Automatic annotation (TrEMBL):
Keywords: Isomerase, NAD. The keyword NAD applies. This is NAD-dependent epimerase/dehydratase domain-containing protein. Gene3D superfamilies: NAD(P)-binding Rossmann-like Domain. Belongs to the NAD(P)-dependent epimerase/dehydratase family. The keyword Ubl conjugation does not apply. Residues 293-318 are annotated as: Disordered. The lineage of its organism: Eukaryota, Viridiplantae, Streptophyta, Embryophyta, Tracheophyta. It comes from Solanum stoloniferum. GO terms for molecular function: isomerase activity. InterPro entries: NAD(P)-bd_dom_sf.
Amino acid sequence: MEICRLPSQPAVVNLQQRQTAGIYPFKTPEFPPYIKCSLGDESSTKNPDSKNRMFILGMGFVGKFLAADLKSDGWEVTGTCTSTARKKELEEMGLHAHIFDANEPQQEILDILKFHSHLLISVPPVLGVGDPMLRHKELLKKRLKDGNLQWLGYLSSTGVYGDSGGALVDEEFPPSPTTELAKARIAAEEGWLHLACDGRVTAQIFRLGGIYGPGRSAVDTILKQEPLSKGQKMRFSRHYTSRIHVADICQALKASIQRPSPGKIDNVVDDDPAPREQVFKFARNLVEEKWPGHISSNNSAEEAKSLIPQGASRGEKRVSNKRIKMELGVRLLYPTYECGLRSIIERIENPFGVS
Ligand SMILES: NC(=O)c1ccc[n+]([C@@H]2O[C@H](COP(=O)([O-])OP(=O)(O)OC[C@H]3O[C@@H](n4cnc5c(N)ncnc54)[C@H](OP(=O)(O)O)[C@@H]3O)[C@@H](O)[C@H]2O)c1
């Protein structure tokens, strides 16, 4: 099958044929907005009727939230983490957890993969290394092919789009990563799509905006009264930032599991890209409204000073979520940061210990 790129149609690529023809790996990733992988007959040997079992590689912030959500829907969920403290926390939630290092993957944990129907990859790439799991793709390929896996989701980032000068970008916008990490992301997206195609598994990519939710938000940062990290300060130099509440990421993932589409890329962002400075100002007002007088004005002045753009911009853009709405039928629970932050603060009991 030829690569077909028509302006108004998604690009269709038969990954297997391209690989056989020795076209992969790409040196410079040129990523079509929509890749179709022909899974062939072998995919029909997988058992789609078996119980839904999710394996989450990297049960971090999103992974943990999704695990709890799926578990309440009756799924079996297993996942990995890197520390015993984290493992204990996950087990207390009723999840199966394994300590796992993607740099040196234990075969026996990879073997467990075979008994799962779905796999979510949430381990980020590392500068200078790339995706640590993909360095072991031969180990993974066999497990994907021989097991019962039907669906693989890779959590990526809208950072892959680079700088669009403030224009709204959708999945058709050619990625133009400006940082080494964003380049590693694109390579990881491609790597997982190829691997899944070889393993006869439907793979989908989710490009997430800045993730927030209970326990990780501008409200939480202000309540902790901690100085902003260097990374947070740097990100203020971008005008627009797209973000997404973790509950809406779970919605999009679940909707895509219901309507699998090999090679599809979805942006997962809310309706309201906004500068971080504006988000922090809004969060600060919420905190002051709820607990007047508890936030030091010194902190506010320091924060304002630290928000002065520093260093080079990492790209100005707004990201479109039309596809998840139109094709997956997602109706965002938190379409704006205002309603997302309000819902977070409503659930926080007095963090200052006195009323
Ligand atoms: N934060 C954002 O705003 C944002 C935006 C767009 C995309 N993303 C990406 O979306 C994904 C999910 O985000 P998140 O906020 O849920 O990430 P997170 O909380 O940092 O979770 C990442 C998970 O990967 C695990 N992990 C990291 N390095 C590993 C290694 N070498 N071997 C094995 N496991 C490893 C971590 O283990 P532990 O649990 O033991 O720490 C954790 O479970 C990540 O890839 C992230 O980079 C994040």
